[in-house]
Model the fold of this input.
Amino acid sequence: MGYVDLHSHVLPGLDDGVKSLAESLEVVGMLGQLGFDVICCTPHQKVGSWVPSSGDISKAHADVTAALDRAGIAVELRLGAENFWDELFLRRCQDGDVPAYTGELAFLVEVPPASTPPKLEEHFFRLRTRGQLPVLAHPERYHSLCRQQGRMEAIGRTAALVVDLGALDGAHGPRACESAQWLVKEGLAHACASDSHSAKDADAAGRGIEWLRKKVGEPQMRRMLEENPRRILQGELPD
Ligand SMILES: [Fe+2]
Done:
């Protein structure tokens, strides 16, 4: 059993992730070398930037899956989306059709870093009671939340907190690095993911995995990359 990546942009031509099929194979191959055997493709769903259609996503997924097969790269690609907290997401919440991970038991969401929505934890709680687990992308970027340990704990009781691996090694700047390391050391982060848009991010993810191995030890590292992501995809919030 290998690692499961809950956050990546490895389908070409849908968002600001990889640009071509060749780049897609390169990045997926690198993540495979790091130990990932399941990668959830989570193209952005963000009004005004990128809202790829489900048809385009399915086609890109089929193309990359076939190319991986031809190249002999044994990594399973699953689907998902990185839903930005905007009017489209809120409407989809009301309608019960937020683009979710394969299996429909959990979905990835990001919030505006500069102005965290008020009552975020209540909103997540309501979604949770409807049977789906919200998964919060890169909580280390939400600096106002990271300054309030109690609030981050409350959010982490209704949503899975998934830190970017690259942030652990400083790839996203000193503030995100400090917050990412704090979330992991305090035991608030449930899992880590690559958030790969390119080979550079996959490289940084490798350094993040090394940081985890050194700072929290092999068993906890494996929990955060292997066991917990699998539980999250089952709609379970890990302890
Ligand atoms: Fe992302």
